[in-house]
Design brief:
The complex is a heterodimer.
Chain A (H helix, E strand, L loop, with lengths): L3 E4 L2 E4 L5 E7 L5 E8 L3 E8 L6 E2 L7 E3 L5 E6 L8 E8 L6 E2 L3 E5 L1
Chain B lengths: L2 E5 L2 E5 L4 E8 L5 E7 L5 E7 L5 E3 L5 E5 L4 E6 L8 E8 L5 E2 L3 E6 L1
Parallel strand pairs in B: 2-11
Antiparallel strand pairs in B: 1-3, 3-8, 4-5, 4-9, 6-7, 7-8, 9-10, 9-11
Classes of the chains: A mainly beta, B mainly beta.
Chain lengths: 111, 111
Amino acid sequence: NAGVTQTPKFRVLKTGQSMTLLCAQDMNHEYMYWYRQDPGMGLRLIHYSVGEGTTAKGEVPDGYNVSRLKKQNFLLGLESAAPSQTSVYFCASSYAGQPQHFGDGTRLSIL
Amino acid sequence: AQSVTQLGSHVSVSEGALVLLRCNYSSSVPPYLFWYVQYPNQGLQLLLKYTTGATLVKGINGFEAEFKKSETSFHLTKPSAHMSVAAEYFCAVTLGSTLTFGKGTMLLVSP
């Protein structure tokens, strides 16, 4: 049972490039989340989804887009990467909002 | 809206000493409360949760926390520290489908 899997684990981008982070869960969870973690800031919610085909904004949504075309997958996109988006990104899923199960993170550096 | 304050970004204890990590919340109604632990280069793991019922909650690895409504607190304790519990700890609160995290407390354990 893999739980929550994030792809890729590491990535370096140049300013202005685009990329998509993939999150996959095999627990049949309805809810999925994307967070970013920065030193001294805790985890901040970017976007979340309460079911297939739905998305909602979190605390820090600007510069990101998401899609939930399949129940098991939640994609996070950066259309034009900026150095301020250098961070560790975590995906999480849950059955009914909580508790949330987390992936191991994607470390993204933008030069 | 809800918020979480973790007192102390770093807490240092000696091996065998009591661990006390402080968390205070702000919420208009009684929330659900959580403690998560994060080891280096890993995602967050659920330590324990309070939803309803007994206010003293026991979690994994000998941790426990007590919900005190009158003090709006949910402090995490462990009677005797071990090197293996050195990690970052996050308190979180929810009223629905999303979590609000504190900024985290790094627990340092010295021999």
